[in-house]
Amino acid sequence: MIRVENLFKSFNGEPVLEDISINFDEGKTNLIIGMSGSGKTVLMKSIVGLIKVDSGKIFYHDRDFVCMNIKQKRELRREMGMLFQGSALFDSLTVEENIRFPLDMFTNMTPKEKSERVNYCLHHVNLDNENQLHPAELSGGMKKRVAIARAIVQNPKYLFCDEPNSGLDPITALVIDKLISDITHEFNMTTIVNTHDMNSVMEIGEKVVFIHQGKKDWEGTNEDVLNSDAKNLNDFVFASSLAKKYKEKM
């Protein structure tokens, strides 16, 4: 579980996050949604320590991340997996080398152990025997699956996904959503997904947090979204639906 308490963050005196408190549930897909500029990306970056907050607390199973020293934070980050928006694969490395990279950096595993772990993760993302391909040879969906394999290669307790469906067609996006959900439940991870994709919300949103103008405006499940009378949330859902229909006509 990850618990955020009374989080504040500002840039140049302008508040970006204001008094945000959220419990992210273990073993579930927790989605952060909101309009562009709402603060959801700053929130995720704050939780993983890429941005230093002005005040507030961030607990990882009762360990206060904000109060940790550099060594303690480095140790905790070994328990995190990150799926970046653009996949962030190394073009010069093969699929196997990309996935093995965190093991080379942060573990003392033998080459045999690393190879076995890489193949284990490739199997879980349905990319068996694709070890020697390079990113340029992969489709967008395959790149995302390789990035997911790399994110889980150290068997993390916490998985963070930043716009995992960005740039994907609707069918491939559904595949990635299901993969993230399946891995979350299989490994009992606390997964946080930053997204504006309402399809993702309805497919895998076991817990949904809506951020509006830097504040937590609403939270509930994907089923609650459909029955909510929260005006800002409903406006967001309506705008997202219109944008989706427009893209489908293009």
CATH topology of the largest domain: Rossmann fold
Give unreliable regions as ranges.
none
Order of helices and strands: EEEHEEHEHHHEHEHEEHH
- Tell me, what is the CATH class of the largest domain? Alpha Beta
What distance separates the N and C termini? Answer: 41 Å
Domain tally: 2
Mean pLDDT: 92
* Computed Rg: 18 Å
CATH architecture of the largest domain: 3-Layer(aba) Sandwich
Largest sheet data: 6 strands, mixed
Task: Give the strand order, joined by hyphens, for the main sheet.
Answer: 6-7-8-3-9-10
Number of DSSP helical runs: 9
Which class do the helix and strand fractions yield?
Answer: alpha/beta
DSSP helix fraction: 40-55%
Give the CA-based shape.
Answer: globular
The CATH homologous superfamily of the largest domain is called P-loop containing nucleotide triphosphate hydrolases
How many strand elements?
10
Strand proportion, as a percent range, falls in: 15-25%
